[in-house]
Amino acid sequence: MGKGSSPFVHVFKNMDKFYFFDINQHKIVNISEESFNILKDHQEFLNHELYTLQEQGFLSSNRVKVIEHPATEMLEDILSNKIKKLNLQLTQQCNFRCDYCVYSGGYDNRNHSSKRMNWEVAKKGIDFLIDSSKDSSNINISFYGGEPLIEFELIKKSMEYAIEASDGKIVTFSMTTNGSLLNDEKIEFFSKFNIHLTISLDGPRDIHDKNRKFATNNCGTFETVYNNIKSIELKYPDFKKNIQFSMVIDPSIDLNCLNEFVADEEDFFKETAIMGSIISDHYRKEKVEVNEDFISEWQYNKFKYFLHLFEEIPDKNNSQLMRSSNALLIDFINDSSKSYYPLLEKSHHAGPCIPGQLRLFMNTEGDFFPCERVNENSKIMKIGNVVEGLNVEKVDKLLNVGKITEEECKNCFAFRGCIVCAAMADSGDEEERLSKELKEQACVNARRNFEEMLKDACTLKDLGFRSDMIKVSKNY
């Protein structure tokens, strides 16, 4: 059978069992070894088991013919009327110097500088969001840095103006902060606007202070941040629910120490979420080193997380960091229980959001980027500015990143589970183009991660985990 006429499935083994993942149905099917070999070798005939599955709608050879995102033809309307969020980079200054920070000099996309946003630019950005969200009843304004609390007066002015100018919309606010500048004045003001804070805290003192230091004296910052949060907990207990923590995990640390800290500080983390992520390699000049002990600890903690889903171990013995890192797995199990339409003739792999719609990022000078994670120095990632608006053609190019690997994408088993966006294909060079080579490297990683997720899903299902248990597990 030719590749285009063969069943569009991905075969794999997990433990001592055999499976295929049906891309059109978005489902995993357990099969016999004989059926596995037939599909693996692209043999012409189907045995009784495979014939029966085919009769049930599996094993279709249907593939996408043209790579194009379904939102492409509606881009102008979406960008004019359906913007949902604006992330304001108030400053590129910070009172910390964190070793892994994207502004630290170890990355290609940013550096600390004295640049700061003035009120005129901030006001124009807020006006742009309101004018470009006619079809969105809820909008969000987020404050970013550097350290945004350095510009507290600008934050206050922006929040008050946004509420006044919002024309009846529900306006919510959020902020990513290192937490060191929080005090009574700021919390009292934020409480009036119900702002949500993401505070960076990497673990106990030794782990946190390893990478997160004050700019002035190179001393650790843990005590300052921890005490500020304890003060909030004591004086403003109702505000605690507005806080979540971001833990950037250094793979050179002892992961068990991090888990013990979270477990021991039960009251400290009560009513908050913890989002864990490993130090990013993206745009990084030097690769992040990961030792085998860390990998073993990570896998063991994932195993404990699986046991926790079955209530085999209590919540306090489960690593909270595993919740966020396995969110895609849980979503996949939930989604695979639903009915899916076959792939459309014209479609695009999962991964890209509509650049600028969900997380529009505006830097200190008023330039627009798809989100805060991309390279601010890259010409391809600059999609407009607050005076001229968004460049639909550039947004189209980023949205349809799959076109640069079109033939590979048409036959990729991770088509609906892809996490690759244009940022992963950005070389940051002077030319306004995306790199096919970088995109292909990202695709290799995406396929590997997706297959691992398929195997994890099989393991959980074989142990009796059901989609109707997911709601319960998410409440923990």
TrEMBL record:
Molecular function, one GO term: metal ion binding
Family as reported in the entry's similarity comment: Belongs to the radical SAM superfamily. Anaerobic sulfatase-maturating enzyme family.
Name of the protein in its database record: Cys-rich peptide radical SAM maturase CcpM
Cofactor(s) of this protein: [4Fe-4S] cluster
Domain Radical SAM core: start-end pairs: 90-230
NCBIfam families in the record: rSAM_ocin_clost
Superkingdom field: Bacteria
UniProtKB keywords: 4Fe-4S, Iron, Iron-sulfur, Metal-binding, S-adenosyl-L-methionine
Organism: Paenibacillus albidus
